[in-house]
Design brief:
single chain; mainly alpha; two-stranded antiparallel ribbon; 2 strands; 3% strand
Length: 187
């Protein structure tokens, strides 16, 4: 059976999203170095937005795969041992899935992408579940990453701010694109 054009496009999008993820992570570290608390926690963490965007745009399976592959590409950046890097990657990919599942369990429905209320709740659920996943995993695999009990809160704040900033950047880009399209039509 021949793969369809849609399957090829999905594979291509997974690869592109997977490659963008570590680039944004490194860019985030460079832009917001002043807001970095530890190598894995910052007051502003833009890749948090990408993790959610991956599953919302590509779907649960493809979006999770894109985040997992992108996170695995970051292993060279952190120079962490393989078990720790793998656990971090699994937590990064699992956070959005857990958030979507918790949202669905609580509301009895999927997230409405046009609802600011739904996206805000999803962001908060994601930030909390991501921080809890990572800190639970670190306490088992690499307790040296646990610097202070309050760092869970710092990670939540960083994920919320990064997700909101990413969403506003995306919104700005969409509005700019629409403006340019309208401008072309008028001329």
């Amino acid at each position: 059976m021949m793969p369809s054009k849609i399957q090829h496009m999905n594979i291509l999008l997974i690869i592109v999203f997977a490659l963008v993820f570590p680039l944004v992570h490194v860019l985030n570290g460079w832009l917001f170095r002043f807001a970095e608390i530890t190598p894995h926690i910052a007051w502003i963490y833009l890749p948090a937005f990408l993790r959610l965007a991956h599953v919302l745009i590509l779907g649960r399976v493809s979006g999770t795969l894109a985040t997992l592959l992108g996170s695995l590409l970051l292993m060279w950046h952190f120079d962490a041992d393989f078990p720790t890097a793998l656990v971090n990657s699994l937590c990064s990919a699992g956070g959005p899935l857990l958030a979507l599942s918790l949202f669905r369990w609580h509301s009895g429905r999927d997230v409405a992408l046009t609802s600011l209320k739904d996206l805000t709740w999803l962001t908060l659920i994601y930030a909390i579940s991501n921080a809890v996943l990572h800190h639970t995993a670190w306490s088992v695999v690499d307790p040296s990453q646990l610097k202070a009990p309050v760092q869970v809160v710092w990670m939540i704040v960083g994920d919320v701010l990064g997700t909101l900033l990413g969403a506003y950047i995306l919104r700005w880009g969409i509005l700019r694109y629409r403006y340019h399209q309208l401008e072309k039509e008028l001329h």
